[in-house]
Design brief:
Blueprint (H helix, E strand, L loop, with lengths): L1 H11 L4 H4 L1 H4 L4 E6 L10 H8 L1 H4 L4 H14 L1 H23 L13 H11 L1 E12 L1 H4 L4 H9 L3 E8 L13 E7 L10 E7 L12 E3 L1 H7 L12 H13 L35 H6 L3 E3 L2 E4 L2 E3 L15 H13 L1
Helix pairs in contact: 6-7
Length: 338
């Protein structure tokens, strides 16, 4: 049993922070934790795993065919099957620990991404006066899957700053140019670290952080005002945009504030469009139908005996009037062509 425990500890790299650093945690934790954790999900991706080991399986036309080919490995290539089974067991065990151990109550849920649980773990390793600084995808503050973590960071006033970057200059050469990441700095939440956090979004280089027109602050009260339902971080390109939006929201309530109790100051009802082309099809006529029924086209409206039929416009009819459309298409072509 001792031999097996030793083998498993080396295989899974067991690590206990309090046993490894007893003098640190005797004083409450680290003064500073810095890092750039992995940005990947915990589940095993069969296509990637077999890319080098069995390209034939990796290039299978469908997922169902790939799974059938994997099952045949038990007979045709038992060693590869055993290796795959061990890798699957490793990923399943990792997901089980992260999601069910209770160590990561905010980020150990749903489709778990390692960067999120690292961020939660780094914060838990700090002492009351400590700081964490890490490079994370910007989704740590804006995604629904990490909203509980961000809510806790904001409500405890432990966020110091979040500086968001677009990777257009390929700061990370192996990461797509459209990927957004941030420099995230926070305390452990035992005591308030900052009354309001500093933000910069859409930066392309460190020099952009020095531009005071791009920097703005948001307090927990501001975020609750702007995003009362999710408490995720609103995004602004400038300090002026942030101040203007806050001024508007102080005077004008959100459409619906989820409960309980639900607050619906505008009396809003949500439905699938103003009209549904299936259930409301009897309300619509084609040009041929109207002309056959004696309606007369005046401008872009059909009239008859004081009644009118108005034209129906769909979203796809408007893109050509977007002055940025050609620019966006060129950008996409440049990215795709690489």
């Amino acid at each position: 049993m001792a031999t097996e425990v030793d083998r498993l500890s080396r295989q899974y790299q067991f690590f206990h922070w309090h046993l490894a650093f007893p003098e640190v945690f005797a004083n409450g934790g680290f003064d500073a934790v810095l890092g750039n954790p992995p940005w990947e999900h915990t589940e095993l991706k069969e296509k990637e795993w077999f890319a080098e080991r069995s390209p034939e399986i990796a290039s299978a036309a469908t997922g169902a065919k790939r799974k059938a080919m994997i099952q045949k490995l038990q007979i045709e290539a038992p060693e590869l099957w055993a290796e795959f089974a061990e890798a699957s067991r490793h990923h399943e065990g990792q997901s089980h620990f992260l999601g069910d151990s209770g160590r990561y109550p905010f980020c150990g849920r749903g489709r778990i991404n390692l960067y999120a649980v690292f961020a939660e773990g780094m914060r838990n390793q700090l002492n009351a006066a400590g700081r964490m600084g890490c490079v994370l995808p910007s989704g740590i503050a804006t995604d629904d899957t990490t909203k509980f973590y961000f809510q806790d960071v904001i409500e405890r006033q432990s966020l110091v700053s979040l500086f968001d970057f677009e990777n257009k200059r390929l700061i990370f050469p192996s990461v797509a140019p459209v990927m957004k990441f941030c420099l995230f700095t926070a305390g452990n939440g035992e005591h308030p670290t900052a009354d309001a956090a500093e933000f910069v979004f859409f930066a392309h280089g460190v020099e952009d952080l020095r531009d005071q027109e791009r920097r703005f602050t948001l307090s927990p009260q501001d975020i609750a005002l702007l995003n009362p339902n999710t408490r995720t971080c609103p995004i602004f390109r400038s300090r002026r945009d942030a101040e203007l939006t806050k001024a508007i929201y102080r005077r004008v309530p959100v459409l619906v504030k989820e409960g309980p109790p639900e607050v619906n100051p505008w009396g809003i009802r949500f439905k699938q469009g103003l009209f549904n082309m299936t259930s409301d099809s009897h309300l619509f006529r084609t040009r041929e139908q109207l002309e056959a029924e004696g309606w007369r086209l005046v401008g872009n409206v059909f009239e008859q005996n004081g009644e009118r039929y108005l034209p129906l416009y769909e979203a796809k009819l408007f893109h050509q009037f977007n002055h940025r459309q050609a620019h966006l298409m060129v950008c996409r072509w440049k990215i795709d062509s690489k």
